[in-house]
Amino acid sequence: MSAVELDGHHLTLEAIEAVAGGAPVRIAPAARERVRTARDFVERRFASGEAIYGVTTGFGRLAGISVDPADARTLQLNLVRSHAAGTGEPLAVPLVRAAGALRANSLSAGHSGVKAETLDLIVAMLERGVTPVVPCQGSVGASGDLAPLAHMTLTLIGEGEAFYRGQRLPSADALDRAGLEPIELGAKEGLALINGTQVMTGIAALGLLRAERLAAAADVIGAISLEAYLASERVFDRRLNDLRPHPGQERVAANLRALLAGSEVVQSHAECDRVQDPYSFRCIPVVHGAVRDSFAHVRRVTEIEANSVTDNPLVFPEDGEFISGGNFHGEPIALAIDFLKLAVAELASISERRLYLLLNAEDRGLPLFLARRLGLESGLMIVQYTAAALVNENKGLAWPSSVDSIPTSAGQEDHVSMGMTSANNLPRVLENVEGALACELLAALAATELRRPLRSGRGTQAACATASEAIAPWTGDRVPAPDIAAARELVASQRLVRAAEAAIERRLSG
Q1: Which domain holds residue 248?
Q2: Are residues 136 and 272 in the same domain?
Q3: Is 53 tagged catalytic?
Q4: What does pTM read for this prediction?
Q5: More confident residue, 85 or 275
Q6: What is the Cα–Cα distance from 276 to 447, expressed in whole angstroms?
Q7: Distances 453 to 77, 227, 269 between C-alpha atoms, Å
Q8: Given pLDDT bands bounded at 50, 70 and 90, which one contains residue 149?
Q9: Catalytic residue among 53, 164, 279, 385
């Protein structure tokens, strides 16, 4: 697996995902030189004896208290230890690796003042698979992710715990088994390492990529459902959607046109007297499109945050200055995560409505609940209950945590983002959306079988064929849970989308 190069400025979300999945990183030569220059500046200013926030003073409300330069290393060590106050289950290893890549990238910009050896250890840990144990709770999102980043930093100094080759170990043991040695923190390093938004940004980056893939799956599954429901494809007409030229709406309409092209099912009711369909079918381009446009905004914010320097104070060697500011505040990424949760939850909301309609479409020639022997069999009745439960859960999880703020540090940190709360809820929202889409897919496949021998569109036919390899036709009542699991795998693995894309020679995501 090729290494991802970090220079502080050009890290992509896809590269973050690669590192989260196991790819190593390396520091660009120019970035390494910037790091050395910044560290030399910190050492010179520290030696001068002047007051520097977090270097020769306390932190937060204690910033006005001077600290003897002889205690500089103890100050940094105490900072890391005292701030490692997290609680709750450990974050998943890929999420911590994503945060590690972001932390290394931010330090590579050369404005944090850490030693090159410190950066090298972060890189080596990513390469050799040493992942700090980071509790998921304890951050209020300003000054950044203090508690989670403090737990990450503990591993660098040989304290706390880390995962290594599937085992949870004391960090010192994990480093030793990987052939690594802990560092000793120098002036400013503890502060540089625990200030920042890298944990919530890493979760946002991985979550957004997953959300974008769910949007593509929603288009495919929505198309299969619409076709089986005998809904009109005229709502995807280019002329109609060009008059409301949101990029997402135009993209979704084009996707559905391609997926349904050549459909005998669609043509079978071309002359019917129905004028309009329910909104969950008629408004697929509008709703799915708005979700995609929301994702585009979140992507821009997350890409900027991924290449930002968010600790404090920041070092400007070329100007001979330390500048203390508020780059650590998590509001930009907190709002983006909340927006992402709200947007992706809509995919599940409209999906559940389409599922409901498929199970109650006697006027469209489908048996109630898609049961072959109604009364004796319940069909897919309860699958809709499952989708409804997932949608309901998302209504709570999608509530924006960023609307709240609880002052900390004796009022010095009087407004915080609560972005980590939103970040912790994001994976569960995504799982619920995936589950709801899987439930719709089961009904769409069962309804499609009832339209045979009519052939589906180019894209929907290919998607159904791929799905049928994992999910048997619904010919009578059986336990649906394994089918839901199989449908989830089709969505999560992107097999369903890739089959459709290959058939229509068009990329559905993006």
Answers
A1: 210-307+339-405+413-504
A2: no
A3: yes
A4: 0.96
A5: 85
A6: 20
A7: 71, 14, 15
A8: very high
A9: 53
